[in-house]
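Attaching the record inline, Q. Sequence:
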Amino acid sequence: MKYSKQFYREQCAGSLRSAREVVPLILELVKPRSVVDVGCGVGTWLSVFREHGVQDVLGLDGPHVSPDMLMIPREVFQPVDLARPAPVILVLLSTRTS
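Structure, as predicted:
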């Protein structure tokens, strides 16, 4: 599904509030060194991970996402066709030991 700029503007504040509540809990439990967000929209959640020191992030979403709306650096956003079938999604968590 392709979302408009208006959609992202309207949902941004709520998404940011949610991320600021949940991301610290994730960091406490998992302690990730990197985060990939598939379907990241404008990168709201990734921006909060960056606020908490996780700089190695990658956001994936459709080419309809306007680069001028991104909340993450453009170089960590990759437009992809998310409508393309993906038979297997493998998630590997890499955690800090220190």
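The first helix runs from residue 5 to 30. The mean pLDDT is 87.

More tomorrow.
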